[in-house]
Every structure is written in structure tokens, then in C-alpha cells.
Design a protein that fits this description.
Elements: H1 3-29, H2 37-53, E1 77-79, E2 89-90, H3 93-107, E3 113-120, E4 123-130, E5 133-139, E6 145-147, H4 150-154, E7 171-179, H5 182-194, H6 203-211, H7 216-221, E8 225-235, H8 243-252, E9 262-265, H9 266-280, E10 288-295, H10 298-304, E11 306-307, E12 310-311, E13 314-318, E14 322-335, E15 340-352, E16 355-361, H11 365-371, E17 378-383, E18 390-394, E19 419-420, E20 428-430, H12 437-448, H13 460-468, H14 475-478, H15 483-487, H16 494-507, E21 509-511, H17 512-518, H18 526-536, H19 539-544, H20 547-550, H21 558-569, H22 571-582, E22 586-588, E23 598-599, H23 600-607, H24 614-620, H25 627-632, H26 635-642, H27 646-657, H28 659-670, E24 675-676, H29 679-683, E25 691-695, H30 703-712, E26 716-718, E27 727-730, H31 736-744, E28 748-749, H32 751-758
Helix pairs in contact: 1-2, 3-9, 12-13, 17-18, 23-24, 26-27
The chain binds ligand D41.
Ligand D41 binds next to strand 3, strand 7, strand 8 and strand 10.
Length: 761
């Protein structure tokens, strides 16, 4: 072909791409198309044609390439370069007042400027642009790692495939919320109904479900929307000074940014905005569940630092839970994973909080009595966010002449075992344990759950069939399933059987925290499982831990400790764990977190030796030769050296000669508990012995001054962030050190936080 013809074709392809991008933007982002659909279709077909005839002209950011590629078998896990933090919630005005006060105090400001926006009820995602091109789209996941859903996100017309600025920044992560507009949700459900397919509960679930399709061609048929609300990890870009300016920058790059955004001042500004959006809520084309307030000045944001995984500079002010009135048709009971029997009200269907509710929990027998809820009553039901709807109260004026009271059954409706409610406890339980199919099913569902072993495709229907047909009794049996054992189940094609077997296989590689959580130990949720993994570092150590040792773990009290010990003492549980391990379930040894530093006196106090109060503990900590000698001391020596009473001395000797107690101490020493003999050394300053890393510009202190202050209090300042870092002090324009610290979960302080720690506030 003639060279001029070729350049003409390339030029035409470029023109078409730009025109289509612009029309996409006008249609999907501005909602203001300037050409008729037929004209748009003509342009699109011309581009498709050109690309089909000249594949060498195809570029990944071409609007004709939004849908492409074969279905995936699974989503790849990706680590966010900058973690996706969560937002703290406020429900009451007072909490907003307190938020504003904390900020004013930390910043030393009389009135603070805030950027405010609606809180979309969607799915948070991160879009990565490199050299101006969209290279990755990922779900939030747990904030640190999410799933690579690039192919699906590319099908969303409102998401730019390339940035407008020239030259483009080297790198940029745009964060925002995927959602489905109310009208598109209605339309989707109408289509699903016509096709005889499952309906979505609400727009959020529809958006999430569409995003998690392995076949991008399905996602492409769903009308998904997107709003950008943050920008992170920019390289090669001069960041503006405020959040609102940052959003304006995103507008210039053709991102959809919510038009309801505003800049307000002071707490009154926040509350006024909350009420004005609240009034508009129903008329907005999408669901929101509150509003978000952010300190507008980005330097000041950085100065505020973080608590846990949420920034201190922002808060989500949530709308109250929705309530509705309906009738109780029946009260049944449900059997939970640990056998807990929960009374559930079967309701006349009622629309509340965006979904139709037909069941609501009554929590337990005492609650039913306390609220005096009877079958036949008219009741108020409440649904907040994604939580299970609950019955709030009965409307007594509407109580019919004849109602029936709820009676707790004597036997489990599923397995017939006795229902037992130990005296003093609120919860009645089925005593069938894993003999009870309801408990087995729940245990398996929990094990396979997203936050546990994450076996995709193992849902309720499948768990029911697997248990009812005796194919699976315990989670360990899942790893023996093959395609023939699955293919004859209802609604199970060969393809999905294959996918499930693969998902089960993939789940074998996991983390210790997930594994512990997946076991379903009563009272051990995700956060506790993470703490346990961090504290013990290995399953064997955890399984050997005594009740007392367990209580040394932050936030674990006697009840949780007892549950853990009981769980691992159970033969059946040991067997299941053994089988899971021999089936090849494995994880890397967890990096152990460092233990809370304590003084010896604090530690002795914690041991709770009978007859030894805080002041005796102080004295014991002074025993010559240290703790090891103290453990071996006889009563006489104690009395002589420490002037203890005869009773206290005997009690101490008894305590240390008890093998159980020695075991606790040994376990803790083995885990690296250390303390100093001298109470003053550890207590004097929380800075002593700690390693700090400074990054970015602090508002008042120079780096040198900050370093001096830290060192004066016995701390160290290091140049780079590692696992050994105790604190990162971050100021404006903090860079990769901050990101590393966030990744490692190292506490991050602003200038104020540092001063607080130094005791200089
Ligand atoms: O509309 C939202 N759901 C929303 C979520 C929002 N408007 N702003 C947000 N800002 C943040 C920070 C301040 C951490 C960048 C967020 C979220 N985060 C968020 N969404 C899900 C987890 C966190």
C-alpha cells in the first residue's frame, strides 16, 4: 500500500478514536450527548472496520478495544501501591462536632475548610494510569490487596482509557466508587426476570456482581457508573494544594466527579451539607448512604496522620438506618455455625433500605420477651447498610386480639438433638455439634467464605447438596472432591465442576490468619484471627497455647481464650486440622509482630498471683538477680530480700512451682516477651528504644529539630522504613517511605502525634 494512503488511514483511525472518546465523555460522563446515537454508531463501526482491516493500527486505549479478550478463569491478586484506606463513621451530630474539634486542635486552626461529597453506596476501586494510559483496575479487597478486574473496568464507558494532559504523568492511581444507577438497576432486574435469571438485591450488589464477572463481555452489557474521589501515588505531576482542586484536575482528565461536591467551612458547614444532601437523597439517580467530609488542605491532611487503617482527616457521616412497618407471620428458629439457635421473624414482605425484607432477626429468646414480639404483631423492622435486618419493636396499638407467643423449641428443627441453654447465658444451642447438618453446612460455608479460604463458587445451595448427599462432612473433605463427585449435583455443569475443583485447589495456598479464621472457632472473628497469627506466628504454637498465654494477646479476654483452648482440645477439630494439612493446605509462617513492651512489675502484675497486688508486684520486680532467680526463690529468701508477708511469699512460691504457670511463662518467653528490671526505664518515655523514620515536611519542626527531640528522649532515627521501624513521622509530600510504612502497618504520626508521644503537647 502506498505510504500516503497508509498515513491517511492511521490519521483517520486517530480522528475516529478521539471523536468517539469525546462523544463517550459527553454521553456517559456529562450526560449531554451532542450527536444522535445513529451517528455515534456509524463512527464506532467505521473504527471497528478500520481496526479489523488494519490490526497494526490497534492501540490498547482504543475505544473499540474496550471489550476484548477471553473469559478469565480467575482474577489475579494485586497489591495496591498505596493502600486503600477505609473511612471512620459518624452517626450523630455530636460525633461530627468531635471530629471537627479534633481537627481544629491538631491543626491549631479556628475554623477548618472541608471538601464534602456524597458517600456512594458502591464498590471502591483503584485505577492505575502509567504514562497516561489505563494499565490496571483493581477492587479494594482488604485495602492492601485486591483483585485485578482491568478487563471488566475497561468496558465501563465513563472510565477514561487515557488521560488528557500532555505530557502525561508517569504514574497515577485514581480511586473511586463503581456503582449502578437506580434506573439501570431496575432495567437489569427486569431483563434478568425475563431471562428467568436471578434478581439482584440492590444496585450495589448488582454493581459488585457485574464487576466480578469472569467474562468481560457480560460486564460490558451492564450499565456501570463510576465516580472518582481520590488520587494517590502520583509521579510526574504537580499536585494541587487542596482536595477540591484535585477533583477539578480529575474533571479536566475527563473523570466523572460528583456534581454534588462542595467546599464548606466549619462544623455548621458540614451539618448544613448533610441535611441538604439528605433532603435530595431520594431524587438522586444513585444510592448514597451518607456524606463524606475531608480536610480540604492536602498539607494539613498529611499532618493529621492515620488511626489504624483510616485517615484522621476524613469521616463518613452516615444516614440513619431505614425503618419500615410490617407484620410477623411466624417466628421460626435458625441454627447457626456454632449451634446457636436464633429466632427469626418471617415477615410480610416489606421494602426497606433498598431491599425487600422477608426475614428479620430477633437475636435470642430474651430479646423476644423483652420486646414482647408476638406472631401476628405489626412490627418496625430496621435495616442498616449490609447488616441483617432486625425487628426493633412491636406496634402495640395495632396488636390484634389474637396473637401467639414464641416458644423456644426443645429440640433442633434440623437434627433433632436437644436444645440447651446453659444457666446465665443468653444463647440457646443445638447440642448436635457437627452431627447437625445445619452446623456442618454453616461450617463449610464459613470455611469457603471470601475472607476465609476464599473458595469461589461454593455457595449455600452447593453446601446444602454436598452435606445432604454425604459427600462432605468436614471442610477437609472438600479437598477430596473431584469432577465426577460434583458433576451430578443440581445446577452443576462440567465446566463449573471444573472451576470449583480448581478454586478448591487454589485455596490451598493461604495465610495463617485466614486459616485460623476459616476454622470457625467460636468468638474468633477476622480481626482476632489476624492478631493470633501475628502473635503466635505458627499454628502449632497457637494450638499449644494455654488460656492464660492467650490472654496476653491484645484484645483477647478470658472468654475468647477459653473458646480457643476448647476448640483445639477437641479431638475432632485436631483431626480436621491434620487432614487439611495432609491435603496440602499451607501458608507461610507469619511475620511475628512485636509484643507490647512491659516492665517486669507490670508483667508480674499481669500474672495475677494470688495475694500479690500492684505494690507487691513492684517489690517482686526488684528481686536481686532478676526474674529467673525470682522464679526459683524460696519463701524465706523472698521474705528476707523483699520484706514480703509470710502469706504473700508462700503464694509466690506456690505460683511459680505450679507447672501450669511455669508453662505460661515459658510460652511467653518463647514468644519473645521481654521486660526491663528497672521500671523507670520502660515507663519513662514511650519514645525510649523506639526507631523512628522521618519523611516529608513537617509544618513547624525541621527534620533536624525533630531528630534531636526524638534522640533526647532516648529514641533512634533511621533513614529507611523496615519491619524494625516503630513509627513513621510523615509530613507534606511524604513519598515512598509513607507508602512502605502503610504497607507494613507501621503507625504513622503527624507532627502533632509526634509531639504527643514526646509529651510536649
Ligand atoms: O463515596 C464514597 N464511598 C467514598 C469513599 C468517598 N466519597 N470518599 C472516600 N475517600 C476515601 C479516602 C479519604 C480514604 C481516600 C471513600 C473512601 N476513602 C473509601 N471507600 C471505601 C473505603 C474507603
Amino acid at each position: 500500500m502506498d505510504r500516503t494512503v497508509r498515513t491517511d488511514i492511521a490519521k483517520r483511525a486517530r480522528e475516529l478514536r478521539e471523536a468517539i472518546e469525546l462523544h463517550n465523555y459527553r454521553y456517559y460522563v456529562l450526560d449531554a450527548p451532542t450527536i444522535p446515537d445513529a451517528e455515534y454508531d456509524r463512527l464506532f463501526r467505521e473504527l471497528q472496520d478500520l481496526e479489523a482491516r488494519h490490526p497494526e493500527l490497534i492501540v490498547p486505549e482504543s475505544p473499540a478495544q474496550r471489550v476484548g479478550g477471553a473469559p478469565l478463569s480467575e482474577f489475579r491478586q494485586v497489591t495496591h501501591r498505596t493502600p486503600m484506606l477505609s473511612l471512620n463513621n459518624a452517626f450523630e451530630d455530636e460525633e461530627v462536632v468531635a471530629f471537627d474539634r479534633r481537627i481544629r486542635e491538631a491543626l491549631g486552626a479556628r475554623e477548618v475548610e472541608y471538601a464534602v461529597e456524597p458517600k456512594f453506596d458502591g464498590v471502591a476501586i483503584s485505577l492505575t494510569y502509567q504514562n497516561g494510559l489505563l494499565v490496571q483496575g483493581a477492587t479494594r479487597g482488604d485495602g492492601y490487596t485486591g483483585e485485578d478486574v482491568t478487563a471488566n473496568l475497561k468496558t465501563v464507558r465513563a472510565i477514561p482509557l487515557r488521560l488528557q494532559s500532555d505530557p502525561p504523568p508517569a504514574r497515577l492511581d485514581v480511586r473511586g466508587e463503581m456503582l449502578m444507577f437506580k434506573r439501570d438497576f431496575e432495567r437489569l432486574n427486569a431483563e434478568q426476570a425475563l431471562k428467568g435469571e436471578k434478581l439482584f438485591v440492590n444496585p450495589r450488589n448488582a454493581a459488585a456482581g457485574s464487576l466480578r464477572q469472569l467474562d468481560p463481555r457480560i460486564t460490558a452489557t451492564r450499565r456501570l457508573a463510576f465516580f472518582a474521589y481520590a488520587l494517590e501515588g502520583a509521579e510526574g505531576l504537580n499536585l494541587p494544594k487542596t482536595h477540591s482542586a484535585l477533583l477539578e484536575y480529575l474533571v479536566t482528565q475527563r473523570f466523572p466527579v460528583c456534581v454534588e461536591r462542595k467546599v464548606v467551612r466549619g462544623v455548621q458547614g458540614l451539618l448544613d451539607y448533610y441535611h441538604s444532601i439528605g433532603e435530595k437523597r431520594e431524587t438522586l439517580p444513585y444510592h448514597i448512604d451518607g456524606v463524606v467530609y475531608k480536610v480540604n488542605d492536602l498539607r494539613r491532611q498529611a499532618q493529621m496522620g492515620f488511626v489504624a487503617r483510616a485517615p484522621r482527616f476524613a469521616v463518613a457521616h452516615k444516614f440513619p438506618a431505614e425503618e419500615a412497618m410490617t407484620e410477623v407471620l411466624e417466628i421460626d428458629v435458625q441454627v447457626g455455625r456454632t449451634g446457636a439457635i436464633t429466632p427469626v421473624a418471617r415477615l410480610k414482605p416489606v421494602f426497606v433500605g433498598g431491599v425487600t425484607v422477608t426475614n428479620a432477626t430477633l437475636h435470642n429468646e430474651d430479646e423476644v420477651r423483652r420486646k414482647d414480639i408476638r406472631i401476628g404483631d405489626t412490627v418496625i423492622v430496621r435495616r442498616a447498610g449490609d447488616v441483617i435486618p432486625e425487628v426493633v419493636s412491636a406496634v402495640l396499638d395495632r396488636r390484634p386480639a389474637r396473637t401467639r407467643e414464641f416458644i423456644m423449641p426443645k429440640t433442633c428443627p434440623v437434627c433433632g438433638s436437644k436444645i440447651i441453654r446453659p444457666p446465665g447465658e443468653a444463647v440457646a444451642r443445638c447440642s448436635g455439634g457437627l452431627y447437625c447438618p445445619a452446623q456442618r453446612k454453616q461450617a463449610i460455608l464459613h470455611f469457603a467464605g471470601r475472607r476465609a479460604m476464599d473458595i469461589e463458587g461454593l455457595g449455600e445451595k452447593l453446601a446444602d447438596q454436598l452435606v445432604d448427599r454425604g459427600r462432605v462432612e468436614t471442610p477437609a473433605d472438600l479437598y477430596r472432591l473431584d469432577i465426577p463427585a460434583l458433576a451430578d449435583l443440581e445446577r452443576m455443569a462440567d465446566l463449573s465442576a471444573g472451576n470449583l475443583v480448581r478454586a478448591i485447589e487454589n485455596s490451598k495456598k493461604t495465610t495463617l490468619a485466614r486459616f485460623i479464621y476459616s476454622l470457625g472457632i467460636p468468638n474468633v472473628g477476622e480481626a482476632t484471627a489476624k492478631e493470633l497469627a501475628r502473635f503466635f506466628g505458627s499454628l502449632d504454637r497457637l494450638m499449644r497455647a494455654s488460656e492464660k498465654t492467650l490472654q496476653y494477646v491484645p484484645d483477647i479476654g478470658s472468654e475468647v481464650a477459653r473458646s480457643i483452648v476448647q476448640f483445639f482440645a477437641e479431638r475432632h477439630n485436631q483431626e480436621v486440622i491434620g487432614k487439611l494439612r495432609s491435603a496440602g493446605v499451607r501458608w507461610e509462617e507469619e511475620k511475628r509482630g512485636r509484643l507490647k513492651p512491659t516492665t517486669l512489675a507490670q508483667f508480674i502484675g499481669w500474672l495475677d498471683i494470688p495475694g500479690v497486688g500492684p505494690s507487691a508486684a513492684e517489690r517482686l520486680a526488684e528481686y536481686p538477680g532478676g526474674f529467673k532467680r525470682l522464679m526459683q526463690a524460696d519463701a524465706q529468701a523472698l521474705r528476707r530480700e523483699l520484706d514480703l508477708s509470710a502469706n504473700a511469699a508462700r503464694s509466690v512460691v506456690d505460683y511459680f512451682s505450679n507447672p501450669e504457670n511455669r508453662n505460661v511463662i515459658e510460652q511467653l518467653m518463647d514468644l519473645g516477651v521481654t521486660f526491663t528490671k528497672d521500671a523507670a526505664e520502660g515507663e519513662g518515655s514511650p519514645v525510649r528504644g523506639k526507631t523512628f523514620v522521618l519523611t516529608g515536611t513537617l509544618p513547624n519542626l525541621t527534620r533536624e529539630a525533630a531528630k534531636e527531640k526524638i534522640e533526647a528522649m532516648g529514641g533512634k532515627v533511621a533513614g529507611s522504613v523496615s519491619k524494625k521501624t516503630d513509627y513513621v513521622v510523615a509530613g507534606a509530600e511524604a513519598g515512598s517511605k509513607l507508602a512502605t510504612a502503610q504497607k507494613l502497618g507501621i503507625p504513622i504520626l503527624g507532627e502533632e502525634g509526634l509531639k504527643e508521644l514526646l509529651g510536649q503537647l
